[in-house]
Design a protein that fits this description.
Structural class: mainly alpha
Number of domains: 2
Shape: elongated
Number of strands: 0
Largest sheet: none
Radius of gyration: 24 Å
Oligomer: single chain
Order of helices and strands: HHH
Strand content: under 5%
């Protein structure tokens, strides 16, 4: 396998690299047949569901932790302007 036919994306800027990679991903998706596309879309849906669940779980925990800290500081008679 030769590397002559591949584009070295490192020669472009970071933003252009990101855009080119996105275009190559789109090109790969458009080459898929119906069955491959269905599998890809299901996999993407599973990824989004898992990511949303993780974001909700960790985001909720972070808010609860910050609330507990704020309550403790208020109970210690700290000024609210100092807490924020």
């Amino acid at each position: 396998m030769t590397t002559d036919r591949y584009i070295n994306l490192n020669i472009f800027g970071k933003e252009l690299n990101k855009d080119l990679k996105h275009l190559f991903e789109i090109a790969e998706i458009t080459k898929m047949d119906r069955k491959e596309l269905a599998v890809y879309q299901e996999s993407l849906k599973d990824y989004w569901d898992l990511k949303n669940a993780m974001d909700m779980y960790f985001g909720k925990g972070k808010i609860e932790e910050q609330t507990k800290i704020a309550i403790n500081l208020i109970n210690m008679r700290m000024n609210i302007s100092q807490i924020a």
